[in-house]
Each structure stands twice: as structure tokens, then as C-alpha cells.
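User: Please write out a complete single-protein record containing the residue sequence and its fold in C-alpha cell form, without commentary.

AI:
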Amino acid sequence: MGRYTRLRRIERLDPQQDYEQIFWWLTQYEFPWDYLQGLSVAFLRDYGVPRISQLLDRTQEFETAGQKRYDDTVLMAYELVREGTHSEHGRATARHLNRIHGRYRIPNEDYLYVLATTVVGPKRWIDRYGWRALSPQETESLALVGRRMGTMMGITDLPADYTGFEHLLDTYEKEMFAYDPANRRVAAATLRVVTGMYPRLLRPLVARLALALLDEPLSTALGLPRQPRPLRVAAHRALRARATVVRLLPARPEWWPSHPKPRSYPFGWTLDDLGPHWAQSRPSVPLAEETSPQEHG
């Protein structure tokens, strides 16, 4: 398989009909590492909103079980699309996700913003640091998978396309980004998880490089120090150099999709393992699509 063979396949597909297939190729074959980095930055953007970070800070999940909380978030998204969001497994994952979030009173606009970060964050990262930019089909697949996830979670006023998600994110951040001590605490706990994935001697450098990749509005909202310009330039050039190397590598073969390698579950996981321990005791709530019009009204 040539380096661009899969891209040519993607360009022949209709994202309105084939968005899940496109999304799977994008996240498991074309850009598995970059997609996860984009999600990691998306997590940090959530913490720039005091209302969101204060809720996360109160749960203390990142302080007491940061690695599991990080792994569970990544794995929940993976499980949602692994067999397709319309499959029974995809619907079971959405019900489990709703069971967890149902414990808290979260405004719809916060749900919308967090969802937008998972759509826009990976797109912006890949376009900047991936071995190639996303095609229009791949971009819309991110938006349509995000929209499908939002529908399953009962989120309303969902954007119709990527442009809508991007506008929502930028508008919300301009209005809601503000420093709060909770922002810094949750961000610092998350960065400890990220740097903990590297050898101990490299962790201080990894932490500095991670901070160097944050834009100024986000750094300010998180209360984290803005790194010197030479370090920001060095981090950018290092990632661009990696992109050049990856571009020269063979394409990932069909029989070798990328799979999550969560540190919290070295021997594998089930859906019931994901989320806080109390989640299993909460009643399951049917998805909106599983509710009859009489029940829904």
C-alpha cells in the first residue's frame, strides 16, 4: 500500500454516509498518535473554563486517579466507535457514558463546548503537526462523529458541520476562558499523567515542551507559565521534523490497526471497568433514539 493510497480511498467516499469508516481510518491508521495528542490538548482546553474545571476539581478524580481518568476518557471514545455508534456496543457505551454524567448538573452549553474540543482539537493538531493535513472528507467525519456522539448523549443545538463546531469553540472560549485556581490544579494533575508516560529523567523536559505548545489564551486561563519563545520554536520544529519522518514511512497495513495501550489496564478492559466505581450502581437511562415519541414528549 502506498503512503497516500488510503487517502485516495477516503476522497472517494461520501462523509455524510461513510463518516464512521472515514473516522476509523483517520484515527486508527492515518493519524493514531496525532489524534491522541489533539485529544490531550482538547482536555486541557476544557480546564480553561472555570465552571468545568471546578466540577472536575470537586470530584478529585484527577488528583486521586488521574491515570485512570485519562485512560477512561480515551477508551470511552474508542469503545463508542469500535463497532460503530449505531451498533449495540456503541449504544451500550453511550448509555454508560450518560450514566456517569447523569450524576452532575452540567449545562448543555458546557456539553457542547467539550464536544467541540474533541472535534476541533484533533483537526487543528493534525493540520499543524501531522504528516499531512486532513482532507475535507476527514474533517467532516470528525464533525459528524462528534454530532452523532452528541445526539446519543442527549445534547441539543448541535452544529451541523465542522465549521459550526469551530465557530462554537472559538466563540465560547472568548466568552468563558478565565483564570481560576481550579483550572491550574486540574491542568497540573493532567500534565502529571501525561509526563508520567515518559522515563523519569525526561519528565521535566516533556513538561516544558508540553507547556510550550499551549497558546497564550489557554496558558493564561490555566495559570501556567508561558514558555520562552526559543523553546516554543524548538517544540514546533521538533514536531514538524517528526511529521517529515512519518511521511516517509510505509502506510499502516490493513491488518494492523492502532489500539489503545492504557497504563491502567495492562491486561485489557471491559466497558464496566471504565468510569468511577459508583457508576455501575446508577440506573441506566435510555438514549433519546431508544425512547418512543410518547415517552419523549
